[in-house]
Amino acid sequence: MKYSIQEHYQKLAQQYDDFWGTSSDFIDFLTQAIILNLQLKSTDILVDLGCGTGIYSKAITSQISLENKIICVDPSDKMLEKIPSNNNYQTLVKDAVEFAHEQGKYDKILIKEMIHHINDKEKLLQGLFDRLNEQGILLTILLPPTIEYPLFQQALSVYESVQPHYNNLVNICENIGFKTTVNFVEYAVSIPKENYFNMVKNRYMSLLSRFNDEEIKQGLTEMTEKYANLSNLEFCDRFVFLVAQK
């Protein structure tokens, strides 16, 4: 199966928000952590790089009043169409590395679960370092090297083979000139099994776009057997918050 991350998100755009529509507590929790780690102030110029449908940009504006529009950048125009056209947001259809090497100065930059899609991470991070104002902060959120998601075994194995290690990102950031801190954020997830299986079927994670329909079907069969006695799936969702300050 040909793996295309761009095609994955274009297809997912229409239903992406529905996957998280019942998870407002989860979104609010992570948003609070984002605001704290970014040390976000009302006067900051914030970039949400790889913002998708703007779930976290929208949550940020509900928790803090910003004087400037959040600059929401994503290569998927279909995802960006889900962001309201108002004075809170400025949308930009653009590749992250391309954006990082254009003109512009910003106070805070958020990258949430996007860095694993970037081949030349050093080029991206160097560009963002140059775009930040003095004392500016780049917050990169990614998953740890291993996860406890209730996925089928092949998916978990592929995940571990492709997920970048946060320590490697720390080294890149510090070589560029950032001062870095790593924080770990955990959230106890409880989700109806039927809902989660539907999310897997629809490839809610970009990881799952690496599998064809038959492989997804086989994976769901494996999951059905493994979790046969459960109606709710409970697991710990762990995030690495890499705070890089200029």
TrEMBL record:
<keyword id="KW-0489">Methyltransferase</keyword>
<keyword id="KW-0808">Transferase</keyword>
<protein>
    <submittedName>
        <fullName>SAM-dependent methyltransferase</fullName>
    </submittedName>
</protein>
<feature type="domain" description="Methyltransferase">
    <location>
        <begin position="47"/>
        <end position="136"/>
    </location>
</feature>
<dbReference type="GO" id="GO:0008168">
    <property type="term" value="F:methyltransferase activity"/>
</dbReference>
<dbReference type="GO" id="GO:0032259">
    <property type="term" value="P:methylation"/>
</dbReference>
<dbReference type="Pfam" id="PF13649">
    <property type="entry name" value="Methyltransf_25"/>
</dbReference>
<dbReference type="InterPro" id="IPR029063">
    <property type="entry name" value="SAM-dependent_MTases_sf"/>
</dbReference>
<dbReference type="InterPro" id="IPR041698">
    <property type="entry name" value="Methyltransf_25"/>
</dbReference>
